[in-house]
Structures are given as C-alpha cells and as structure tokens.
Amino acid sequence: MFLYHKLQVDNRGIFRITGLHIESPGVYKAKKFACRSLKGKGAKSGIRVIYAYFEREDRIELIEIYYKGERENEDRQRILRRYCP
C-alpha cells in the first residue's frame, strides 16, 4: 500500500479519521480497495482497511478490515481502547 497521505497525494481513497482526538498515531481509512472475490466491483468493492501510521517510526499498524455491506463504519471504540492512554 502506498502511503498517499505521507506523499501528500490525494487519491480520493485514503482519509484520516477525524473526531478521535488522537494526535499520534494518525488513524486512516483506505476506501479504494479492490477485491477479486467480489467480481465486477473493482475499487468500489466496499472493503475498508483501517490502519495507524506512526510518523516518527515511519511504520503502519493494521487495525481492522471490514466489508461495508456488513457494517457502515470503523469500530471507533476499538481504536480508542488501543491508542488512548
């Protein structure tokens, strides 16, 4: 996965999740994520990848992957439990 936010490229598919009140790490949602198992859907498959980006260490950490058809949004409580002291 390219870290478009790091390169400051707006590919219209990766967004920083706002409203978490977490300064670091940055938590991002990748929306344009193709899946061959969902034929005919391409980049609009509905798969979401949520990850944390640790800028100082230049590393990412997977938080969750989900199918939008099964639920609307990321599990914010999981994110807060993991990254808030």
Would you write up a description of this structure?
The chain has helices spanning 4-7, 76-83; strands at 14-16, 26-30, 47-54, 59-67. It has 85 residues and is an alpha+beta fold. It has a single domain (4-83), classed as YaeB-like fold (2-Layer Sandwich), CATH 3.30.2310. Strand 3 (47-54) and strand 4 form a beta hairpin. The longest helix is centred in the C-terminal third of the chain and has 8 residues, at 76-83.
Provide a short characterization of the protein structure.
The chain has a single domain (4-83), classed as 2-Layer Sandwich (YaeB-like fold). Helix content is 14%, strand content 29%.
Features:
single chain; alpha+beta; four-stranded antiparallel beta sheet; 2 helices; 14% helix; 29% strand; globular
Query: Tell me, what is the CATH class?
Result: Alpha Beta
Specify the CATH architecture: 2-Layer Sandwich
Sequence of strands across the biggest β-sheet: 1-2-3-4
| N to C succession of SSEs | HEEEEH
Arithmetic mean pLDDT: 81
User: What's the structural domain tally?
Assistant: 1
| Alpha-beta classification | alpha+beta
Describe the biggest sheet?
A: 4 strands, antiparallel
Secondary structure tally, helices: 2
Shape: globular
Oligomer: single chain
Q: Report the β-strand fraction as a percent range.
A: 25-35%
Which regions are unreliable across 5 or more consecutive residues at pLDDT < 50?
none
Q: Ends: how far apart?
A: 28 Å
User: What name does the CATH topology carry?
Assistant: YaeB-like fold
Q: From the alpha-carbon coordinates, what is the Rg to the nearest angstrom? A: 13 Å
